[in-house]
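S.,

Sequence below, as promised.
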Amino acid sequence: HDDDEKNDIETRRDAIRKKRQESIYSRKTGELIQPFILAEGWLTEVEVTIHQGRHHQIRRLCARAGLKLRHLRRTSFGPIELHSMQPGDVRVLGVEEKARLYHACVPCLEGAHERRIRAMAAARGARPL
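The prediction came back faster than expected:
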């Protein structure tokens, strides 16, 4: 399993290296920029998990650590994996995904519906459902 994972990481790194060898256009000036590849040609992939993001928080974190951030990609939103979705893509969440997202965002409300039913029944003097 570890060998497969290592091979997968190396395959992804090779694909990134190949893509980074292509020239890109500057967003600011529109001029063509040649790629910057270190002498050894290595790139590092870092996975970061945060629970509450602030504006450009990951970019500032990388800058403070002395890392040059070339690409930033969100892989999940809470418990929802984005898989192959591209920026701007939209899809409908399944019932199970909605439940996981609701549970992650509002854990204190878990069981609130049942508690409310019991409280209403108690107020009426009836037996809970």
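The chain has a mean pLDDT of 78.

Coffee later?
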